[in-house]
Structure formats: structure tokens, C-alpha cells
Amino acid sequence: MPQINKVVIIGAGPAGLAAALRLHDINNISVTIYEIREQPTHLGGAINIPANGLRLIDRLGVYESLLKGGSIIPQLVVHSINGNELGRLDYIAKIKAKTGYEFIRIKRTVVVDALLSEVQNRGIPIHFNKSLVAVDENAKTGATITFSDGSSDTADLLLGCDGIHSAVRKLHVDPKIRPEYSGVSSMSSIVPMPTELAGMHTTFTSQGSVVVVPCAENSQEKSLFWFLTRHIPEPDTADKRDGWNEHREKEVAGFKNTLEEVTSEVGGDWGSFLRAVVSKTDTVNFYPIYRLPHGGVWHTSRCVLIGDAAHAMQPHVGQGVSMALEDVFLLSRLLKKESSLQESLRQFETVRRPRIEEFASQAANNGNRARQKGPWQMAITEWGMWAWFRARRVFSSWSWGFREEEWTYDIDRVDIDYFDAL
């Protein structure tokens, strides 16, 4: 077993907070968290946590609080442009029968607050307003981490849980890899629910895909999360950030016109519902969707990247947080084995890469469906979805290209001893 007495975690999002809890509770390791923001982050809309992630949330002790603050998503419904239903996936009963857990959609802030509360209850130190500027690593003794205010800390192991724009990755683990634009961007908001709605509902339009889903149905405040995903070219400017900021200002300023134009295509009662959602929308978030290319470096001798810092994928398969949780739980198991730290980190990558890359590829494929379409492309898309829903009754592939076992997967049941010889 590697001699790990102290771990420093960079990042206080779901990945970093979950890692702190697991290593503290199961590995009896001293943990300290550092976060660049001045206070707990309240960024982000509503995230999906399927059964494979909820199982791990339960093992962290925050499952009940999330159920109270989120919405169970029993089905996926796909609508045609005329408002008719192309098909639905009623997956909750089957998955719950096998795992005991549902799929939920929940505000990201609720997840962060629940995990942060448990971290604070355990007395795990967490420091805000800490901007990482340097990592000095010694393979034999550990890592020294330095911040912009001149303070520093040392650890036997450093965890980079600081997201797609990870400072740990850029400064130390893999400076060469850069986030790449997926080709699609999203506009989203959380609004009061106009009428009762069950499940996640998707509509493909000529200008992209519109998704609406409850995200706080079980709380006192019933809320709906919607997002519009569509193809937007990357700004042709030297400074991409300035280009995106300019585009963001235009999108946010004209969001009502955009949404009214998109939803005007949709007919029937469903179209009326979407327009009611638009009428309740006062503000929107606009964000270009970036991802990390496959094949990046995930670890050095004394540092490992977790979650989006290592393998950020598009959100179109709903597994981002769950992949980070699986990373955390596997790392915890490997650190308890009678292996060197370097061997444990090697096994971590060996186990995780195939599953991560499969989900990332599927997310990219799903995101491509959101691109703008002409009339013939719309007709082909709708016919293809109609045929797919009927074909799935015959075949076992039922969830956007994935087998059921991919969603009932339990990282704690993976045979890590099998990978010793690989």
C-alpha cells in the first residue's frame, strides 16, 4: 500500500468535494482542499446523475438530500417538429430494479452545497481564493503547491479536480493538451414549471435541439431546466475568449427572439408548452461546449487528474459528474492495495480510459444531432428516430447507443486485481 498520509485537492466542485469525503472516510487520509473562487461556486445549471452515479452519491452520505432537491427522471420523450411523440424510453423501473437507484436532474448548486456540508461536518480544511501558480514534484517525497498569494503546501499526492481548464493540468501534468471546441454551443435557463411535466423531453428543430426537464420537482420550488443546443462556428479571432464574449453578449441580448423563432416551428400542444416556457424565461446562460481530446496524460508520479480535469466530455450523455465520482471511488480502492503509488496510478488509467472514451464518443455523436437541419434533413432525422425507437424493442441497445449494463455499472465491483498483470 502506498504511504499516503496527506492529499491536497485543487478544486471544490463535485469532483474535489467527493474526493475529499471518500479519502477522509475510507482511506483515513488527511485532506486539504484549495479553490480558486472566493466562495463556493454557484455556477452551472442543472446536471444529470444516473444510477451509476447516484449509487456512489449514496455511499458518500448525501443521497437523501439530493432526492429532496432534485427531480426523478423516469423517461426520455422525443417530439417531432409537429408536436407529436416520436417515441419514449421508460427506463427507470428496469434500472431501479437492478440498482435500487433512479436517474435525477438537479441544480448543480444543490449538489455542491450537499457535498460541501458533509466536508465541513467532518472538519476537512477548505481554503478559498487560492490561485495555483506552481507545482514542484519530487517522485520520492511528494509535491509542493504554490499559490499567487505566496502561500504553499505540500502533500504526498496532489489531485487536480479543477475542471476542463485545470491549472494542475496546464502547469504540470499535461501542458500541451488544450480544450477543443465541439462545434456546438448551448443556451439555457432554469424557470418555474408552467405545468406538470414528467421526464426529459427533446425536440429536434431546424435550428438545433431543445430539451426541457424538471430539475427541482421534489423540493418546495418546482423548476424546469431547458437548453437549446445548436451549431455555432468558433469565432475567427486571434483571441477566442474575446470572440466568444462578443458572441455571448449578442446571444443573451437577443435570446427572446431566438427562442421564439425556434419554438415557433413546433406545432400542437407541445409547441404551446415550449412557448410557455419561453415566456417564463427572463435570463439565459450562453456557453460554447468544449471538450478534451482523447489521449492526454492523466498522472505523474505524485499527481493525478480527476473528472473534467482529465477527460472533460460534452454533456450530451449525462455522465460528467458520474465519471468523476467513479474516478474518485476507484482511486480510493487502489490506494488501499499493496502496490506502489505509481502502479496504483497506472492501474487507475488502465481501468478508466476505455469507459471514459466510450462515453465521450457517444456524447459527441449525440451532440451532432443538435446541428441545424434543412427540411430534408429534418425529415430524415425524425424518420430515423421513429425507426430507432421501434428497433430498440427488438435489440438490447436502449439508451442512446449504450447497453443497459453501462448505466448499472458499479465501479466498486470492478476486479482491480485482474489489472495487476496488464
Automatic annotation (TrEMBL):
Domain of life from the UniProt record: Eukaryota
Keywords of the record: FAD, Flavoprotein, Monooxygenase, Oxidoreductase
Record-linked Gene3D superfamilies: FAD/NAD(P)-binding domain (3.50.50.60)
InterPro entries per record:
FAD-bd, FAD-dep_Monooxygenase_BioMet, FAD/NAD-bd_sf
Annotated GO molecular function terms are: FAD binding; monooxygenase activity
Residue ranges of every copy of the FAD-binding domain listed in the record = 6-230, 298-359
Q: Which family does it belong to?
A: Belongs to the paxM FAD-dependent monooxygenase family.
- Name of this chain's protein: Salicylate hydroxylase
- Lineage of the native species? Eukaryota, Fungi, Dikarya, Ascomycota, Pezizomycotina
